[in-house]
Structures are given as C-alpha cells and as structure tokens.
Write a structure and sequence with these properties.
The protein has 185 residues and is of the alpha+beta class. 15% of the residues lie in helices and 27% in strands. Strands 2, 3, 4 and 5 form a four-stranded antiparallel beta sheet that branches. Strand 4 and strand 5 form a beta hairpin.
Amino acid sequence: MEKISEWKAELERERKEKDKSFAVHWQSPIPPEERAKFKGLEYYPPDEDYRFELELHEHSDKKLLKIEDTGGNMRNFLRWGEFRFKVGDVECTLQAYKNHPRAERLFIPFKDVTSGKETYGAGRYIDLDYARDRTPEGRWILDFNKAYNPWCAYSKNYVCPFVPAENWLKVAIRAGEKKLKREEG
C-alpha cells in the first residue's frame, strides 16, 4: 500500500510541475495569449490498474516505419518491439518505436476509445527511458497515467507524428491527460 501511495504522490507532483511550467515557461506549448487563463491540464485520477510492468518483446527484424506528422512530413521510426497486456478482459498490443538504433528511449503513440471524446483526437504518447522506466528485473513500466498529449494539441506551431493504425486500441484508456478545455472569450 505504501508503494502505491508513493507512486500516486510522485504522479501528482509531476502533474503540478507540468501545469506550472505550461502556465509560465517561455517554451510552453500553450499560446502566450492563453497562458493568463490557463488553469492547468485535466487528468484522469491516478489508477494503478493502468500501470503495467511488462516484458518488451523485441522484434528480430526491426523494420523502418514512415509515420506522417501533422505538418505533412514523413518521419522515420524503427519498429523496435511490442508490449502485450490486458485491459479488463481485452488483450492489447502496442508497438514501441525508436528514432535511432542507439536511442535509449521508446516512443509509444496510441489512440483508444476515448480519443476525440475525452482525450485528444489524434491520440496520446508515452515515452519510456531505459534508465528511468525499468524494474530491477529488467521489465518496462508502461504507465498510462503518464500518457500525455502531443504539443500540437495545444498550438498549431508544433507538428507531431500521427499514431499508426497498429497502435489503435479497441479499449478505453481512462488514464493520463485529457483533452484541453479552452475558455471561450
């Protein structure tokens, strides 16, 4: 129980820091004219059911995948491996990508049943760092509570990779960031 409360406290602290940064930092993706009214991002409550410790099933043949971004550019990613897990009774698979063979970060873009309704329509991302997001046993920590919106969700000044169809989940992932609600007027 103590481990869960520590995890939850750390998640809440990270969220507060991000909100503060988005409100005032000069590199914030929130347009400058909206920052004064920005009251923070909306999140689902922390839910340990959406935190998984998983083996990465690394692909023996790491195929190059070209993913279009919101600016119409094609970006190269390596299809590095896949995570297999269950949400409720539904078997799910997500591909993990790298932008370079020596990169120590895995990029997991995904869409789910909440996309376009409760969450950003183009999908959300999770980044996993080799040193930070692994257990002592070598499993990866795939925590959907850390799922975030790409910066193009906040401003047209940013371009973001689209989520490949192979990472569209047929379940609702009610964890992580929700859609940004903007004040009118």
